[in-house]
Amino acid sequence: MTLEEACLYLGISPDAEDLDIDQIEKNYRTKISIYDTRRFNPDSPEYREARRMRENIEQAYDYLLEAYEDLYGDDYDEEEEIAAAPKKNKSNNLLLKLTLIMTTITSICLAGFIYFTSRPDKTKDYEKVLRELESLKIDLPVQNNIAQDYADLVEKVMPSIVLVKTDTGTGSGFFVSSNGDILTNYHVIDDAKFISVIPANGKSYNALVKDYDAKRDMALLTINSPYPVKFLTISSKLPRQGEAVLAIGNPKGLSGTVSNGIVSAFRENNTWVQFTAPISPGSSGGALINLKGEVVGMPTMLRTDGQNLNFAIAPSVLTKFFDTARNKTPKNFTTRPTSDFQVQEDTEGMIFVRSDKEYDVYLETEYIEYDRNNELAAFYTIWFPTERTKRQMKRDKNFNAKPGKEFGPCLLSYIVDLDEGKYMHVRTVNFYTDGTIARDYAKPMKQYKWEVPTKKSRIDDLMTTLKNYLDER
User: Fold this and answer.
1) Could you name the CATH architecture of 151-325?
2) d(Cα 379, Cα 128) in Å, to the nearest integer?
3) Total-model pTM
4) What is the pLDDT of residue 39?
5) Looking at the chain, which terminus has fewer C-beta neighbours within 10 angstroms, N or C?
């Protein structure tokens, strides 16, 4: 590697007199974070490219350090430089811990950072670090913000999706074997006197029931197909939080509808996959697939009191049921037990704060930093907007809304002084429902200030909830 190449990789001027050890260190940290291989699937081209770039950046960094030492010789002493570095006090260690936590929230592509410190006289000295925050840049995963063309993937998997029709309604299903086995939700066929399925070829087939699990809302159907059918493979593992997924089914009877989103979370000991891809009645029993075309869930339920709170049965649950049911004798059931299935809300890690005409507000307990000595806390919250709020956000001068894209949740970061009853709003990140970032906004440093919340306002309720939570710990 030449000097010019090394400088190119780190964004440093190739002129020897301009070499600066601080700039080399800073640019190295920035560049290496951009190509974080953890953002990509190990089997993807993006992962291999990121790994190649990291190796080149590492090599360039070593080259420039050697070049700097050659230029300045004894003037550069790394050990002396480390020894001369200012000692960090306890509150600075708290800042570091908080920064690490807030920058590793990968499920929603958010990097956040908060500062608070303490003095014997309880003066809140935050202005210095706010100036530092203003100069920092958070490298969000650009790859996830690029609109993807799913046409080839959809064309590949669509022949495996079926419309399930009964005398009581319609739903969705998908082939899981070449001999015509179909997975769907039990509630799709519940109380049905007859069942038929319509694959992508448009032909209608009478379906029989091989087995069902009313409690877990799964059923295995089969058809007498005259030819081997294309089928989907169920993934052997859970998807990653934040991973892109497609939901394919027949919402409201509209055959072969595709929507995209991300994996939001996992519920009830990883037996449920929560996701953001929009679904509607009729989507039940369809396929939630990853970008490899594997089934990572079966869309089953949605919550109508929030925005894109959708749930799919996890792949391990589907596989276990299919392996048990696939060899059973098909039957034409006319009476079956009524399903009492329902999704139980899992509030672990997220506390409901309030619901009003504009937002449902939740407190994320996993990402709270608290200095009990000074009653200072830093945390972030999740707000699910309503249609009214979405229209209001489009008029925000800091918000560059894209036509045709639907707004999803937003995350707000706060610092609060629970002793004095004050708060500081630090950062807002808005997302579209497909998981891409619509706005990432932090105020200029000079606009940061402590405020007193209005009684019974959202932030007032948040602070009350936070205090009660911390008092219980």
Assistant:
1) Beta Barrel (2.40)
2) 20
3) 0.45
4) 66
5) C
